[in-house]
């Protein structure tokens, strides 16, 4: 009896050790390897899939992956499903899967990071429960038409680029982003809805047709719009941001930021030829330079008390005049002052063309299609905008 007493716990420990050994780091070469994980409710390690995998891959039984899930360059993988996985603590990375057309994780709720890149056949995300928690999200070069299934409440970086079929982004629950939010080179008429986003770091948009941020109050970093097709930008609750840029937005005719009080960096508006009026009634401080150029006839700063950097304001409009701003150049504006009205060739502070239709000889060095002027070619990352504006400020 004493032998049995010790044998049973030993057998149980052996079985547990065996189970643990097959529920750790795993490389899946074929469907049989995936089926070998069916008894593992939790995989304590990384799962990777061979680049030689072909056809459909199904991962059943696993509820949690305590590590990364990675598939890279499996160009013959057509479908990937995991019916029970609700959490991936590491990075869920799918890259260069050129024939993957079906991605079904119906219970997935939480990932450490979501990294989906070069999935040209993937048209939708079957994340039925909705991913509410993710450290960072990167989605590049897919055929997605929407981001349904991404139901984030908080996120680090949220970077959505080169998705040519992406027509809508609606992340209703997102309230805070600790990293950069970037939309660039997606469908030309992309519509973005971030109705509950209150705080964030950098928000950068290129090639979009509309954006709604009614709850946005504060950005610790920059806010920039380059080469967009929207007619109006309204941020009724925004009180402060870092560098603020509106560059080469050919249809933009209205900017409404009625509560904006502080720009903690530079403030640039250029090459927005439909924009006639600029009214910032509550703006008190700009810690960098103000650099406006274009065809506007009215610029109103009802509460401006301090501009730490330079001041460059140039317009082609015959009704525009600089009298109001001359009074500011000693007490309010601490950098170099320049204001030109009724000029045929308005320029930015570094001499680039400030109007898309300007005949300025300097316009050749600025890319019209990319929204470039101070931020040349519109390709400088949001993180680098502060450096650019710092350099501009030093010129004054």
UniProtKB/TrEMBL annotation:
Domain of life according to the entry: Eukaryota
Disordered: annotated segments: 339-368
SUPFAM superfamilies: L domain-like
Annotated Pfam families: Ecm33, LRR_5
Gene3D superfamilies (UniProt xref): Receptor L-domain (3.80.20.20)
Entry keyword annotation includes Repeat: no
Main subcellular localisation: secreted
Membrane-spanning intervals of the chain: none
Keyword Transmembrane helix included in the entry's annotation: no
Low complexity bias (residue ranges): 347-368
Compartment(s): Secreted, Cell wall
Signal peptide: 1-19
Record key words, sorted: Cell wall, Glycoprotein, Secreted, Signal
Protein name: Receptor L-domain domain-containing protein
Lineage: Eukaryota, Fungi, Dikarya, Ascomycota, Pezizomycotina
């Amino acid at each position: 009896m004493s032998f049995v007493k010790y044998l049973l716990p030993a057998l149980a420990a052996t079985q547990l050790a065996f189970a643990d050994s097959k529920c750790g780091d795993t490389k899946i070469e074929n469907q049989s390897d995936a089926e070998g994980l069916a008894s593992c409710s939790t995989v304590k390690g990384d799962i990777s899939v061979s680049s030689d995998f072909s056809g459909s891959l199904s991962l059943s039984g696993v509820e949690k992956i305590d590590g990364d899930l990675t598939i890279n360059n499996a160009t013959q993988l057509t479908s990937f499903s995991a019916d029970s996985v609700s959490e991936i603590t590491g990075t869920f990375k799918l890259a260069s899967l050129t024939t993957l057309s079906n991605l079904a994780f119906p219970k997935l709720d939480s990932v450490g990071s979501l990294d989906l890149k070069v999935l040209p056949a993937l048209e939708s995300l079957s994340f039925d429960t909705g991913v509410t928690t993710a450290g960072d999200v990167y989605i590049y070069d897919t055929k997605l038409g929407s981001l349904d299934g991404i139901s984030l409440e908080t996120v680090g970086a949220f970077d959505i680029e080169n998705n040519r079929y992406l027509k809508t982004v609606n992340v209703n629950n997102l309230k805070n982003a600790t990293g950069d939010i970037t939309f660039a080179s997606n469908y030309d008429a992309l519509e973005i809805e971030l109705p509950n986003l209150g705080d964030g770091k950098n928000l950068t948009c290129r090639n979009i047709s509309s954006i709604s941020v009614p709850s946005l109050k504060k950005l610790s970093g920059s806010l920039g719009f380059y080469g967009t097709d929207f007619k109006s930008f309204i941020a009724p609750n925004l009180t402060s941001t870092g560098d603020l840029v509106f560059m080469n937005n050919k249809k933009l005719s209205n900017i409404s930021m009625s509560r904006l009080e502080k720009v903690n960096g530079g403030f640039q508006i250029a090459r927005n030829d439909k924009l006639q009026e600029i009214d910032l009634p509550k703006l008190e401080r700009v810690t960098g330079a103000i650099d406006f150029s274009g065809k506007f006839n009215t610029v109103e700063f009802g509460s401006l008390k301090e501009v730490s950097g330079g001041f460059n304001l140039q317009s082609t409009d015959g009704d525009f005049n600089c009298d109001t701003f001359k009074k500011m150049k000693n007490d309010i504006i601490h950098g170099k002052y320049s204001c030109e009205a009724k000029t045929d060739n308005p320029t930015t502070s570094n001499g680039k063309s400030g109007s898309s239709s300007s005949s300025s000889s300097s316009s050749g060095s600025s890319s019209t299609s990319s929204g470039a002027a101070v931020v040349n070619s519109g390709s400088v990352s949001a993180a680098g905008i502060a450096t650019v504006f710092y350099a501009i400020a030093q010129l004054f």
